[in-house]
Specification:
This protein has 5 helices and no strands. The radius of gyration is 16 Å and the shape is elongated. The protein is 86% helix and 0% strand.
């Protein structure tokens, strides 16, 4: 995979790209609200697994969104939709990192970008496999 081709936006549908960014942004904001609600409650058993849940959700959410958007586009640019779309999920995480300085948030940013990229690659693999 060529990095220049990955970051080139020529020939992609900007409506689908905006949809990917918006869906990732909404997903991550909801995830942050849910986890902060669980964290502030007095449920001790949930707090033990909260970090694992957050990391898995930060990987799987952008993966599924990129897979759906790249499948809808069908133009062979799935990883581009995945990477640019996952920036929508990284934005609230950057603001959370600036306010909290937690290493978990940096890991979440990496997981979000990896999930978006892998979702786009998986969508392209499935498209080539079918046809």
């Amino acid at each position: 995979m060529d990095f220049k081709r990955l970051m080139n936006t020529k020939g992609i549908s900007f409506w689908l790209l905006a949809s990917a960014i918006g869906l990732n942004l909404i997903f991550q904001v909801v995830l942050l609200f849910v986890t902060s609600g669980i964290e502030t409650s007095n449920v001790s058993s949930a707090a033990d697994y909260l970090q694992v849940f957050v990391l898995l959700a930060s990987l799987i959410g952008p993966f599924v969104i990129a897979w759906i958007i790249a499948g809808m586009a069908g133009d062979g640019r799935g990883p581009t939709y995945g990477v640019y779309g996952s920036f929508g999920a990284a934005v609230p995480l950057v603001f959370a990192f600036l306010s909290a300085r937690a290493i978990l948030i940096l890991l979440m940013i990496v997981m979000v970008l990896a999930g978006g990229l892998n979702g786009g690659i998986f969508a392209e693999y499935m498209r080539h496999r079918k046809g």
